[in-house]
Amino acid sequence: MALPSTASAARLRLLTVPALLLLLSSAALLVFLVLPSLSPSSSATSGHLCACSPPSTHTTTTVTTTTTTASPAPVTTSPADVAWLKAQLAANSLLADGAAASHDAWHRLRKGINPRTREQQLFDINRHHGISHYPDEEASNHTALPCPGELLVEEHHSNYGEPWAGGRDVFEFLANASALTPTKQVLEIGCGTLRVGLHFIRYLEAGRFHCLERDELSLMAALRYELPAQGLLYKRPMIVKGEDMDFSKFGDTVMYDLIYASAVFLHIPDKLVWTGLERLAGKLRPPRGRIFVSHNIKFCSRLGGDECTRRLAKLGLEYVGKHTHDSLLFNHYEIWFEFRRPKV
């Protein structure tokens, strides 16, 4: 092998010296950067491993949240409520008594409104007149709970001998008379289309309202229209079709704080009324539980005062007294008779 010439060796030395200087400079820089981290410092005694910057300071803010339990809605319309509404009527220049001089005058107030009777409205619904609707083949895919037109136009609101609004009056009276709270258990004998029951269902906790009803049309109105339309399906009332005072479907252990029958015992034979009282007396929670019967108690008075008292006592019941209550929206009062379990 030939040895490099003198010129080649010089060039090699010239190239090597700069590279060596660069290598030494890099090593010195590395030592300069590493040494501080290896040497002890005041920060090490305080538990901080980094000497290049002070530890960050964190501020913790404690937020206190207060949970307020909402009070149940008031049961009774107060004088302040009535005064507020009258002020609203006056401020809007509306007739305070809600009446016009004549039927024609009343309809002339309906400017821009096309008055329709329930019969006319039902005719329009069946023809889809003025209603955007899906074609027949798609209709069932867009309506979760198809409802008969007769219920949609609320024909069942006219099934009573008094205005539908009277249901609220009954609720207010019974809720106050029985010191009702949302946790109490209520049974209505013959709830019909829920003219009264809707107010109890809305007020009570879910599952606290029971009803025994025999009429199929009333049950359809209650279940297929009133509960969905009023947004009360989540309250899960137990509404049972049944006759002859058969309360077995409600269970053997249920106890009621309020049992009432509004204009029902008038249409039931006396013997069947006594059968119902016999079955329910033991389900009335003492000492505050109450039974209320409206209009009259001929099932009792026809026996005579002493005999009625004896039969009630045999069932574990006693007569408390007679009450009346007025209506908020129309000139009307209703009579109620109260029963309870005797105080021990």
Automatic annotation (TrEMBL):
Segments forming a coiled coil: none
Signal peptide start-end: 1-44
Keyword GTP-binding carried by entry: no
Protein name: S-adenosylmethionine-dependent methyltransferase
Keywords: Signal
Keyword match Transmembrane: no
Region (Disordered): 55-76
